[in-house]
Amino acid sequence: MIRARGSGPVPFPAMDRSLRAVLFGTFTLRFSTGLTGAMLAFYLADLADAGQSGIDAKVVGLLAALFYLAELTLSPLFGILADRLGHHRVMLYGPAFGAIAVVMTALTSNVVVLGGTRILEGASTAASVPSILGYIALVTARNEVLRGKAAARFEGATLAGLGAGFIAAPKLFEILGPNAFLLNALFYGGSFLIYRFVVADPTGEREALAARHTSLGRYLSLVGHSHVLLLAPTWIAVNASIGLWFSQSLFQLAKANPEFPDQWLLRGFSANEITLGAIAIAIVFGAGIIWWGDRFDRFRRTTIITFGVLGGVGLVAAGLVVNHGAFQAGASTGHSLLIGGAGIVFAAGLFLLAGATPAAVGLLADVSERFPGDRGAIMGLYSVFLAVGQIGGSLIGGLVADAQGMDGLLLATGALLLVALVPLSRLRGMEHHLGPGVPSVLGDEPA
């Protein structure tokens, strides 16, 4: 029995087979995405070693950017399409686009064609994320606990799938070479089969399809003036703070940097040390995602996001202490306690920060309650915010790491998180207007 906001107690079903299948399909689909991205780096390196001209770091960066640009520009289109055709139907497009992309990748060494495959991979994500999140928003309508669990497990499945793909990529490519891309086509096929035969049309989708929908032109012209985008600055800033670490952390940790001799985190760590650290971080972050996702009925979304941002600031402070205090950790018991305490604060901050991701997804789903005919369009903003944040974080990370090393990454993270706090007060004041309400068509309400 769950008490929906603004209503009496209403019985709700637990997570059913279709919703579990959607989340498992999210894991397999993101596994394929991570696998392709990592294997492509090895493939390009092999082509360059073989003497193929035109392959350098700029080309590698351009191919990566094409993926995010495709996701950024196509997500709204596929979100609107999902509202008109059905979230379940458009969900099938993602694995199909991905399978075509990896088959093409296996059969070509032409850089221009490889650029096209990255656009197709971006289209795969652009089609799948809005339709999957639209599906989740529909089946969890007016159910606080189920929405929290689904949002948290979506984030967990996404991160776990991408991580598993990155881990599997080196050995698969070493064993199979470019044929590993053909194997990945089978993995994409597995995701397609899950969505096609295990996932059922959600209750309420027929009514949602019959509702009035926004047009693409009206969506683009009006969404910027609606309270829909109150979440944008916070979510983009949080994604940027995470994105700068994804783009720079491994590179910075793996090599000793003599330009910053006073920074312990730049002393150069072995692959095993980095792997163990990454596993520990993944465990803490994953636990935070699940724990906070199960607390949607107890805490407001903006409260969880605020805790996450403040936890991230604490993480930054602890990281600075470790970066400059670890060299002296053996000098005295006091120093050792200081570093140990900083490590505990770092872990606690990471646990709190993890809650911001499912809370933001849940808040976006709450927004979609006001626009039942446009859930896909609203949820497609997830990919837009994610791509903008990842691109911005990657660019910022490169600049600050060159200028200030690990200190630069930590301070930039803190600055981005403080930026994320600024719009939260206004968002918190508007939060009671979100969730179930009078059905609207996107843009019909005043900003």
Number of domains: 2
The largest sheet is: 2 strands, antiparallel
| CATH C-level of the largest domain | Mainly Alpha
Strand content: under 5%
Order of helices and strands: EEHHHHHHHHHHHHHHHHH
Task: Report the helical percentage.
Answer: over 70%
Sequence stretches where pLDDT stays below 50 over 5 or more residues: 1-13, 436-441
Q: How would the global form be characterised?
A: globular
What is the CA-atom radius of gyration, in angstroms? 22 Å
Distance between the termini: 35 Å
Alpha plus pi helix count: 17
Description:
With 447 residues, the protein is mainly alpha-helical. The protein has two domains: 12-210, Growth Hormone, Chain: A (Up-down Bundle), CATH 1.20.1250.20; 218-447, Growth Hormone, Chain: A. Helices cover 75% and strands 1% of the residues. The protein has a two-stranded antiparallel sheet with strand order 1-2. Strand 1 and strand 2 form a beta hairpin. Helix 1 (17-49) packs antiparallel against helix 7, helix 5 packs antiparallel against helix 6 and helix 12 (301-325) packs antiparallel against helix 14 (356-368). The radius of gyration is 22 Å and the shape is globular. 49% of the residues are buried. Residues 1-13 and 436-441 have low confidence and may be disordered.
